[in-house]
Design goal:
213 residues, single chain, alpha+beta, 45% helix, 4-stranded antiparallel sheet
């Protein structure tokens, strides 16, 4: 660039909209985690992209499949309630007094921005967000695991990303069902029976080898 040059700036509206969905979803996710696992849950890091989101949080045990289902359902309930997402500037003292959550160790100025989903979440945040929670469309957890001692990570997607994830899961399930020559809903029970049969056959082989020896 040179001084006096004419430039044109533009925003990728679709990409920005997808980032906003995922960002608001991280706020809903933290609220759902605290409701399902306890108030000890605190944000330990996050990353928001157009295609997915990542949220790190403090928790000292693995999150069970049943808990993940509950958390996912809680987030989607907030999405489908189509809450208005309020964005307000306040003094730091006013924001803290109102109960807005702050990230431990983060430095804030005298004026802060508070993002509130009524009845669900209130946090200090300067990022881009949707106008209504219903714009998120659909929330899907993609994975959960440990990243450090006492810190867990959830990866998730919203809207188109969540839909693509469900499609991929359905295709994989359909492929397994096709190999087994059964319907997709029978795949889990059939796989369990096959695993038991394989275990039994392996034991028989081991016994025969022991006799031959």
């Amino acid at each position: 660039l040179s001084e006096g040059a004419a430039v044109s700036a533009s925003v990728d509206v679709d990409r920005r909209r997808r980032i906003a969905r995922n960002h608001t979803a991280t706020h809903l996710l933290q609220a759902a985690l605290r409701k399902a696992l306890g108030d000890h849950v605190k944000q330990a890091g996050s990353h928001v992209e157009a295609d997915r989101l990542r949220f790190d949080f403090t928790h000292f045990t693995g999150v069970t499949a049943a808990e993940l289902t509950t958390i996912e359902e809680e987030v989607n309930a907030a999405v489908w309630a189509d809450h208005t997402v309020h964005k307000e500037e306040k003094s730091l003292e006013q924001a803290v007094a109102s109960g807005a959550m702050a990230i431990f160790g983060e430095k804030y100025g005298d004026r802060v921005r508070v993002i509130t989903v009524p009845g669900v979440s209130s946090e200090l945040c300067g990022g881009i967000h949707v106008g209504r929670s219903g714009e998120i469309g659909f929330f899907k957890i993609l994975g959960e695991g440990s990243v450090a001692s006492g810190v867990r990570r959830i990866e998730a997607a919203t809207a188109e990303g969540a839909y693509r994830s469900v499609l991929e899961d359905e295709r994989d399930l359909a492929a397994v069902a096709s190999v087994l020559k059964i319907g997709p809903r029978e795949a889990a029970s059939r796989a369990e029976r096959l695993a038991e049969q394989v275990k039994g056959l392996e034991k028989e082989v081991a016994d025969l080898k022991a006799k031959l020896a």
